[in-house]
């Protein structure tokens, strides 16, 4: 059982899912996560979080934003992720219940592996012809991490609905 309440996950998912899909798409196509997508995710939390969470938990979730922003900036400075990825990490953090952090890390690892393998297989298959101009196909070793980050947040909320407290 996850620590996130099924009710909170149910409130968040319909609003967050389109943003996650957009992030996956734009990162594959352009190798960037737009500021508009990150801002949309933040606005969703600001508004829906007031409804979905108890007020004290809602306020504490902003500390998740701050910690993730600092961690993302450090990862970006070290070259481990792009700036858009770091910003997405920060705006996605308030949606996560701290008690689910271990589960989330495992989910992110599985998403990263699955996204990487899927991306590389499609890159070298005839399916690539469906979107021949996407930058992620010709980016060398660079990988559209937004694909895995968006999938992780969406999957976490789905699991929250199914297995939340």
UniProtKB/TrEMBL annotation:
Q: Does the keyword Transmembrane helix apply?
A: yes
Signal peptide segment: none
GO molecular function terms listed in the Swiss-Prot or TrEMBL record:
aspartic-type endopeptidase activity
InterPro entries, per this entry? Answer: Prepilin_IV_endopep_pep
Entry keyword Metal-binding: no
Keywords on record:
Membrane, Transmembrane, Transmembrane helix
Its cellular-component GO annotations read: membrane
According to the entry, every stretch annotated as the Prepilin type IV endopeptidase peptidase domain falls at 16-118
Question: Which Pfam families does the protein's record reference?
Answer: Peptidase_A24
Residue intervals passing through the bilayer: 37-55, 62-83, 103-122, 143-163
The name under which this protein is listed is Prepilin peptidase CpaA
């Amino acid at each position: 059982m996850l620590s996130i309440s099924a009710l909170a996950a149910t409130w968040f998912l319909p609003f967050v899912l389109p943003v996650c899909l957009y992030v996956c798409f734009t990162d594959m196509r352009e190798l960037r996560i737009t500021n508009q997508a990150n801002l949309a995710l933040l606005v969703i939390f600001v508004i829906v979080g007031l409804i979905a969470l108890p007020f004290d938990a809602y306020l504490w979730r902003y500390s998740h934003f701050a910690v993730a922003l600092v961690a993302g900036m450090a990862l970006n400075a070290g070259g481990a992720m792009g700036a858009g990825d770091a910003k997405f990490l920060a705006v996605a953090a308030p949606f996560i219940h701290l008690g689910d952090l271990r589960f989330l890390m495992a989910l992110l690892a599985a998403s990263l592996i699955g996204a990487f393998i899927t991306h590389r297989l499609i890159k070298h298959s005839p399916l690539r012809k469906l979107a021949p101009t996407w930058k992620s196909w010709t980016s060398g070793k660079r990988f559209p991490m937004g694909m895995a980050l968006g999938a992780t947040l969406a999957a976490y909320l789905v699991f929250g609905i199914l297995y939340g407290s």
